[in-house]
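We were asked to recover a plausible sequence for a given structure. The inputs and outputs are reproduced exactly as logged, with field labels preserved.

PROBLEM: sequence recovery
POSITIONS: 311
GIVEN STRUCTURE:
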């Protein structure tokens, strides 16, 4: 039994945020028995975040990933919305007290996608090619493979980044495959980075549904979760917490399920890609063991890397 609608859904205003929140809105309306009236029973509330307003600087220079979540979380605290939809990779390691991530719907493709007008892979790029990315992790992983590349900053919404690639500002760019798929742009992808050998951001491809811990909607929202996704992300987020990772840490983590076993790869790199620290492990496929494995591997990477971990 759910509370009486409406369930107000807070989200960023970008096309990607609106699209992925729209999928959640439609599913909520269906479960409330009003698939014909999603805007009535689960209206979307669009919130402009600091990260959306500031597009000319890297996140690591202006405050980190919380710039995409703090205004939306404030709206939860102020009872302006009942639930927030975040990209999981944008959510800081520890939520504010009083808020909780209560569900992760089924994950999209977690891989990084390679896009170019002329080339099919990082290996195929010419010497000193211009690669656009705003991610320190993607920068480090690309330089580890191709130290000759010229890494150039690229921020903005997906359509902005694709336009700049088409206009010739870059020879190639790297984007999350999940966002491209959700926008119906998967055909633009020329190739993918292997998520095991080049782990993506923890939680990449997953959406996080957040509400107040005392919300009457919490139980209903938790029913939107997907168990395999939640187990894998628990492992990856464990590594994130252990590494105290932020936008100044080039780290990735990728978990995969093999029957009743979860396998996890965690790595961190120096910003220029010349140093790389990596651990792999496995555990029973449940969220508690997965989180503990992530913490264990993350601590091992952190202990080996030491001060070299922070850019």
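RECOVERED SEQUENCE:
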């Amino acid at each position: 039994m759910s509370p009486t609608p409406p369930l107000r859904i807070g989200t960023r205003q970008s096309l990607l945020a609106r699209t992925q929140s729209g999928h959640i809105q439609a599913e909520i309306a269906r479960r409330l028995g009003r698939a014909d009236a999603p805007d009535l029973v689960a209206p979307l509330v669009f919130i402009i975040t600091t990260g959306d307003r500031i597009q000319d600087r890297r996140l690591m220079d202006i405050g980190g990933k919380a710039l995409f979540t703090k205004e939306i979380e404030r709206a939860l605290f102020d009872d302006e919305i009942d639930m927030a939809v975040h990209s999981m990779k944008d959510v800081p390691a520890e939520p504010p007290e009083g808020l909780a991530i209560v569900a992760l719907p089924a994950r999209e493709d977690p891989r990084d996608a390679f896009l170019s007008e002329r080339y099919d892979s990082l290996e195929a790029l010419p010497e000193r090619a211009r690669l656009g990315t705003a991610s320190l992790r993607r920068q480090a992983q690309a330089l580890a493979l191709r130290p000759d590349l010229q890494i150039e900053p690229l921020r903005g919404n997906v359509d902005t980044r694709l336009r700049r690639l088409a206009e010739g500002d870059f020879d190639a760019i790297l984007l999350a495959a999940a966002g491209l798929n959700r926008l119906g742009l998967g055909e633009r992808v020329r190739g993918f980075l292997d998520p095991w050998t080049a782990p993506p951001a923890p939680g990449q491809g997953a959406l996080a549904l957040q509400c107040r811990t005392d919300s009457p909607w919490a139980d209903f929202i938790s029913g939107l979760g997907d168990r395999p996704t939640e187990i894998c992300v628990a492992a990856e987020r464990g590594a994130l917490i252990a590494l105290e990772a932020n936008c100044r840490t080039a780290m990735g983590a990728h978990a995969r399920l093999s029957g009743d076993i979860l396998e996890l790869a965690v790595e961190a790199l120096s910003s220029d890609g010349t140093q790389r620290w990596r651990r792999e492990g496995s555990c029973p496929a449940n969220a508690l063991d997965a989180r503990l494995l992530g913490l264990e591997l993350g601590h091992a990477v952190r202990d080996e890397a030491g001060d070299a971990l922070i850019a």
